């Protein structure tokens, strides 16, 4: 029992920053699988198709689609989706078990922790400085379209499938978050039926100002 507890503690240390970052993006709350499911269910039909699974930021869902689809109807339903927690645990253990013996030793955990800390050490001086630690705890905030970054340019380029310099309502439906699609008409200030980069950045700017008041 003590050995198991030690390993669990080490897993928490190694992956704690990742989990903390995820909770910060959700406002400090624990993961809500129902909200995640609803976010992935683009057409709101109560199930996740293979195409919708491919749009998930993580590959875990698409790569394990058939495992989760227990009733083999080519969709993942809510009752099946909850099993993703077990998949995450297995993935975590698999990453830690470097010699593939089905067990995770303390040496393996320490080696994994070292790899993680080396990624945090951006200037490669062998130390983790306050600025690097702060950067680890405060990841880039996701924008309204669901893509990470200081501005919307990258997300805009991804959504602009036909590269015409504007986002159509159909293209907005492909965003990881539904905010853009649901508020398309409000964001489209010039009412031309498209969202340009200026309009997208403006809605983000207004939202940020409201949060700071």
Q: Helix share of residues? A: 55-70%
The Rg value, from CA coordinates, equals: 20 Å
Q: If helices are DSSP runs of H or I spanning 4 or more residues, what is the number of helices?
A: 14
Could you give the distance between the termini?
50 Å
Mean pLDDT: 75
Quick one: how many beta strands?
2
**Secondary structural class:** mainly alpha
Approximate shape: flat
Strand content: under 5%
- Regions with little confidence, pLDDT below 50 for 5+ residues: 1-5, 17-30, 138-145
Q: Describe the biggest sheet? A: 2 strands, antiparallel
Order of helices and strands: HHEHHHEHHHHHHHHH
Strands in their spatial order, largest beta sheet:
1-2
Describe it.
The radius of gyration is 20 Å and the shape is flat. With 213 residues, the chain is mainly α. Among the domains are: 1-31 and 97-139, no CATH class; 153-212, Recoverin, domain 1, CATH 1.10.238. It contains 14 helices and 2 strands, in the order ααβαααβααααααααα. The longest helix is centred in the first third of the chain and has 24 residues, at 2-25. Strands 1-2 form a two-stranded antiparallel ribbon. The chain has helices at residues 2-25, 33-40, 50-54, 60-63, 65-68, 78-81, 84-96, 106-120, 130-137, 153-159, 169-172, 179-182, 184-187, 197-212; strands at residues 47-48, 76-77.
């Amino acid at each position: 029992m003590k050995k198991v507890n030690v390993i669990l503690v080490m897993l928490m240390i190694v992956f704690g920053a990742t989990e903390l970052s995820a909770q910060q993006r959700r406002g400090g709350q624990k993961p809500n699988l129902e909200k995640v499911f609803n976010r992935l269910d683009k057409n709101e039909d109560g199930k996740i198709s293979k195409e919708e699974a491919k749009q998930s930021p993580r590959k875990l869902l698409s790569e394990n689609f058939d495992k989760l689809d227990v009733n083999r109807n080519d969709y993942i339903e809510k009752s099946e989706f909850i099993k993703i927690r077990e998949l995450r645990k297995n993935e975590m253990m698999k990453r830690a078990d470097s010699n593939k013996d089905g067990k995770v030793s303390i040496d393996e955990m320490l080696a994994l922790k070292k790899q993680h800390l080396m990624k945090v050490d951006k200037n490669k001086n062998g130390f983790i400085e306050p600025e690097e630690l702060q950067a680890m705890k405060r990841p880039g905030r996701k924008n309204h379209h669901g893509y990470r970054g200081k501005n919307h340019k990258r997300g805009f380029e991804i959504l602009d499938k036909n590269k015409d310099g504007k986002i159509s309502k159909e293209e907005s439906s492909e965003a990881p978050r539904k905010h853009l699609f649901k508020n398309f008409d409000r964001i489209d200030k010039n009412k031309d039926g498209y969202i340009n980069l200026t309009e997208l950045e403006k809605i983000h700017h207004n939202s940020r100002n409201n949060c700071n008041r």
